[in-house]
Amino acid sequence: MTAPKTFAFxxxxxxxxxxxxxxxxxxxxxxxxxRVLLLDDDGNALxxxxxxxxxxxxxxxxxxxxxxxxxxxxxxxxxxAQRAATAGPAALAGAPTRVDLRSAAARWPAPHATAFxxxxxxxxxxxxxxxxxACGGELAFVRAGWLGRCGACGSDHYPRxxxxxxxxxxxxxRLLLGRQxxxxxxxWSVLAGFVEPGESLEQTxxxxxxxxxxxxxxxxxxxxxxxxxxxxxxxxxFIALAEPDPPRAGDELEDVRWFTADEVRAGLAAExxxxxxxxxxxxxxxSISIARWLIERWLEETA
Length: 303
Description:
Blueprint: H1 24-30, E1 35-39, E2 45-47, H2 58-61, E3 69-74, E4 77-83, E5 97-99, H3 101-107, H4 110-128, E6 139-142, E7 147-150, E8 156-157, E9 162-170, E10 175-179, E11 191-194, H5 201-213, E12 217-228, E13 233-242, E14 255-259, H6 261-269, H7 290-302
Parallel strand pairs: 1-4, 9-13
Antiparallel strand pairs: 2-5, 3-4, 6-7, 7-8, 9-10, 9-11, 10-14, 12-13
């Protein structure tokens, strides 16, 4: 049986309702009953005292959509995202806490975490792309926040998504894992890297694995993808079959090694939140990430 896709930011996605982005009247009419996610300037969501989602209605916030970004619809209910700094203090009285996206993915219902991920990526793009890359003119955001238009030269700018591969690399019996120097001592994960211009995904897998480990990939098979808004990536998951080359860490990794199925199984059973605690063996990626799902998928196929 194939391992279910248990990673975050996929389940419960909104209907993005693209046709409504140009319909200002329809968006304004939907505002009073809409749910509005409020994010601070660090990308954290405003939350209730219990740490769960705080998403007041448009009527509770007052006014109209204004600069809020239209995320989409769930049934007849519209969802928007807005900078918390632009909301009035009276409307924020029910949101005493802030929650980061990783914590939300672990605790919140999947539809709420998925909407938060979408909102975070879009508002980050707004904050980092205020000026035209062609002429330097200021951008005005139209189409309910999904298009930046330069007021000087008229150039259109769309939300940026950076494609990256992430691969469970195997020699047929072992799994290749690496670790970065900044990670806790026992933390390991599969290899990943960004797609370069003019490169296919399979070529990216081969290049990144070679650069990070010196291991030669023979073939790569696509499995699934995950939005990863830290700040705006799309992780494209592969299983790759490679030569049993002795691995050597490149510039980006502190160490890289082959691990047996038993070692990987023990790593999945270890407590992820405490990799610095005394103990033996490895600790693998968090359950919110496609990295862990790829490891579980490889272990399932190997078994």
